[in-house]
From TrEMBL, chain A:
Superkingdom of origin: Bacteria
Pfam families referenced in this protein's UniProt entry, alphabetically: AzlD (PF05437)
Transmembrane residue ranges: 6-28, 40-60, 66-95
Designated name of the protein: Putative membrane protein
Keyword Transmembrane helix: yes
Record keywords: Membrane, Transmembrane, Transmembrane helix
Phylogenetic classification of the source organism: Bacteria, Pseudomonadati, Pseudomonadota, Alphaproteobacteria, Hyphomicrobiales
TrEMBL record, chain B:
Species whose genome carries this gene: Microvirga flocculans
Principal location: membrane
Protein name: 4-azaleucine resistance transporter AzlC
InterPro entries: Brnchd-chn_aa_trnsp_permease
Bilayer-spanning residue ranges: 22-41, 73-92, 135-162, 168-185, 192-209, 215-230
Domain of life: Bacteria
Keywords from the UniProt entry: Cell membrane, Membrane, Transmembrane, Transmembrane helix, Transport
Homology family: Belongs to the AzlC family.
Membrane topology per record: Multi-pass membrane protein
Length: 99, 236
């Protein structure tokens, strides 16, 4: 069992930041009401981050990955989460074999 | 509290309800946790590091994002910033839930370490009928936290034996998982604009500037696009 110092610091930094976001609402409970564009921007944070994380793998790695990402996106609107993952993994393996 | 009995029975009922509500969520989280551990090990983390991250961060989205962009040595500031962006939603969740939770401020500070999308959603639903008690929250928190930490650890141990993740497509598992999560935000015009702008900017930045900057720049561009694409609010 190894524990890298930099990795530990990164984990602790992530943990502290996450905890602060969790308790911050406690202090703004009666003041934070977002509407209109501000709310739209705030609601857009999770999908924007998720997409930014995977964009290089999905779009610029190769044709197999790009096609598999497209297939996965179609499956995502029809299947539960794990089914979507299964379709994605199976299609990337298959396409890497073909292309 | 004039008699001990009604208190105990209420307490038990609250715990039982918490366990009942969280059970399906916990079951669904097991394979996701296993996947997290396995991919994290494939990316070079040790099982101990996986356990620590799951136990201390306890936030799937942020953990997935960290592992997907994992390099060694870990870019601490970039990881912290990506974590802040992904978990900023907790602020709204906590703000909304706080008036409905029957806990002191000190108890809430402890309880909110375990704030997750799932526990929040279930509590908001329960709050429509009755206040959310500490017993109800604690039952959900304990199960979900232990479940997530154990699943990640088992995944990490199993992942050590899996070998090359590319051969079985495991390196693509998170990409597929994220696509599934993004689909959960629906197909409204604002969401589609957000996704398109974020993807384009992230891919370009990754190609011409490099990791890990594509996460923050893509995300911020997507958020700005959502702001512009949304209808103007009616000023009151």
């Amino acid at each position: 069992m190894s524990l890298d110092t930099t990795t530990l610091l990164a984990i602790l930094a992530m943990a502290v930041v996450t905890y602060l976001t969790r308790i911050a609402g406690l202090f703004v409970a009666d003041r934070l009401v977002l509407t209109g564009r501000a709310k739209a921007a705030f609601d857009a944070i999770p999908p924007a981050v998720l997409v930014a994380v995977i964009a290089p793998t999905a779009l610029t790695t190769g044709w197999a990955e790009a096609l598999a990402a497209a297939i996965t996106a179609v499956a995502a609107f029809r299947l539960p989460l794990l089914g979507t993952v299964a379709v994605g993994v199976a299609s990337v393996v298959l396409l890497r074999g073909i292309l | 509290m004039d008699r001990a009995n009604p208190f105990v029975s209420t307490y038990r009922r609250e715990i039982r309800d918490g366990l009942r509500d969280i059970a399906p969520v916990a079951v669904a989280a097991i394979p996701i946790g296993l996947l997290f551990g396995a991919v994290a090990v494939a990316k070079g983390m040790s099982p101990l590091e996986v356990t620590l991250m799951s136990a201390l961060v306890f936030a799937g989205g942020a953990q997935f994002a960290a592992i997907e962009t994992w390099v060694h040595p870990a870019p601490i500031a970039a990881l912290a910033f990506a974590t802040l962006l992904i978990n900023a939603r907790h602020v709204l969740m906590g703000a909304s839930l706080t008036p409905k939770v029957r806990l002191s401020r000190a108890q809430t500070l402890l309880a909110y370490f375990f704030l997750t999308d799932e526990a929040w959603a279930l509590s908001e639903r329960r709050a429509l009928e009755r206040p959310v008690t500490g017993a109800y929250w604690a039952a959900m928190a304990a199960v979900l936290w232990a479940n997530w930490t154990l699943a990640g650890t088992f995944g990490a141990i199993l992942g050590s034996f899996l070998g090359d993740p590319e051969r079985i497509g495991a390196d693509f598992a998170f990409t597929a998982l994220f696509i599934g999560l993004v689909a959960g935000f629906g197909r409204s015009r604002v969401t589609l604009v957000t996704v398109a702008v974020s993807a384009a900017v992230a891919a370009l930045v990754h190609r011409f500037i490099g990791a890990p900057w594509h996460v923050a720049s893509g995300a911020l561009a997507g958020i700005a696009a959502a702001y512009c694409a949304a209808p103007k609010e009616v000023r009151s």
